[in-house]
Amino acid sequence: MRDPSMNKMAEEIGDEHFSETLYTPLRKDAFILDDKTKIEEIEKLFERIMYTLGLDLSDDSLRGTPHRVAKMYVKEIFSGLNPENKPQARSFSNKYEYKGIVLEKDIDVTSTCEHHFVPIIGKAHIAYIPNGKVVGLSKLNRIVDYYARRPQVQERMNKQILNELKDVLGTDDVAVIIDAKHFCVHTRGIKDTGSSTITAEYSGSFINAEKKAELMNLLNGRLL
Ligand SMILES: [Zn+2]
Predict the structure, then answer these.
(1) CA triplet 43, 48, 53: central angle to 5 degrees?
(2) Is residue 6 pLDDT above 60, yes or no?
(3) Cβ atoms of 109 and 178 closer than 8 Å
(4) Is residue 11 part of a domain?
(5) Are residues 185 and 213 located together in one domain of the fold?
(6) How confident is the model at residue 5 (pLDDT cuts 50, 70, 90)?
(7) How many CB atoms lie within 10 A of CB 119?
């Protein structure tokens, strides 16, 4: 049996929502099972959860739920765990020699809190200064979506997106800001529906106060 003090610790960590590491904690054997087998396994386990809660699985409305949840986990909301689903990073040369800030605002973030398995929903704002390479704007959305589609902690997701962008764009001049609502804060615990959490990671020239101020002005819709 699990040591009760471990449960206590898990509860405390769960509400802290803090993680310092960049990598999602995956086991080495994470992809030994193929998607089809994972769906079959999760379906059985989720059925067990519903049964344990006392639900009648012969009911028409509930019968298909274990399969739907299993398929949703593997193919949709946690599909970003699998590196095979990582968006292809095609960049092209910055032929206009544009040296200003490129900002893509209000990118949808739909993720899942890894401490409570409920949604994290919000917006990401991505800025970079091209250094010879640019990417199609929709690529930024795809990178956000890939890292969002896994059990997450907002701080880690922010770091993972920043790191990937630095790599794809071949520059350190990248900033990622995420503003998100955590359903574990809305629907349980403190039950605060009004709050949102903002995280921001700056690197390269965005660490510089002047560049940061320029970015903030653009984000707020004011031009310098
Ligand atoms: Zn949570």
Answers:
(1) 130
(2) no
(3) yes
(4) no
(5) yes
(6) low
(7) 18
- Span 47-58, pLDDT tens digits: 999 999 999 999
Q: How far away, in angstroms, is 58 Cα from ligand 1 center?
A: 32
Measured CA to CA, the distance from residue 110 to residue 120 in angstroms comes to: 6
85 C-alpha to center of ligand 1: Å? Answer: 25
Within a domain: residue 17?
no
Q: Are 101 and 214 in contact (CB under 8 A)?
A: yes
Q: What is the pLDDT of residue 224?
A: 47
Q: Which of 16, 43, 77 is the last residue of a domain?
A: 77
- Residues carrying an active site annotation: 113-116, 154, 182, 184
CA 64–ligand 1 middle distance (angstroms):
27
| Burial category of 25 from C-beta neighbours within 10 Å (exposed 0-12, middle 13-18, buried 19 and up) | exposed
Same domain, 111 and 204: yes
Which stretch of 25-34, 38-47, 182-191, 215-224 has the lowest confidence by average pLDDT? 215-224
Distance CA 93, CA 97 (A): 9
Phi-psi region of 189 (alpha: psi -120 to 50; beta: other; left: phi over 0): left
What is the 191 CA–ligand 1 centroid distance (Å)? 12
Its domain, for residue 68, covers: 30-77
Spatial contact of 182 and 113, defined as CB atoms under 8 Å apart: yes
Per-residue confidence at 190, pLDDT binned at 50, 70, 90? Answer: confident
